[in-house]
Design brief:
3 helices; Trp_RNA-bd_attenuator-like_dom; Double-stranded beta-helix; AIM24_sf; mainly beta; AIM24; AIM24 family protein; about 220 residues
Length: about 220
Amino acid sequence: MAFREINSKMVEATVLPGQRLFSQRGAMLAYKGDVSFTPNLQGGQGGLMSMIGRRVTGEATPLMTVEGSGTVFFGHGGHHVHVINLTGDTLYVEADRLLAFEGTLRQGTMFMGSQGGVMGLVRGQVTGQGLFTTTLQGQGSVAVMAHGGVFEIPITPQRPVHVDPQAYVAHHGDVRNKLSAALGWREMVGRGSGEAFQLELSGNGTVFVQASEEKL
């Protein structure tokens, strides 16, 4: 595992010769050993076309490549951090949530409508997250950022999970997500619960939720 949580706001990464990591630019707090930090003009994995795709979809974020031999400590903006380990499946996460990830993972983007249909598109507009999201697939670990810490909720076919769209961080597994609306007469007259929109995730997997409704 490349990342280890030092405390709630800092992770430690082991960098080995011949391997590389990607992190948000400026997220290095300290390091030991012979380690280099290079701005990644392509914004991560996949080459030129992948870079163009991320920029077109609004999923591009300034990244740097971390290589060499040593130990690096990452943190950013005082945000809480959480390490997610992937064992061959795909993580769906907003680009601005990524603190760092292993170079063994394949990076891509996904059209929100492909998982949630029309309500997937509406979700992007309601949450301000846009119509696309970043995907990371393969074997490796990812460090994500959040407000107030992250907790994991299992998703099973018998028990879909409903999440406040503003508190959603990421999910992985064989999961469908859609935005459900609970608009009724109470909401129309201002007497509703204040939870008019909820993100429904169903299938098999895990959703990561932050303990806050504040965006990064």
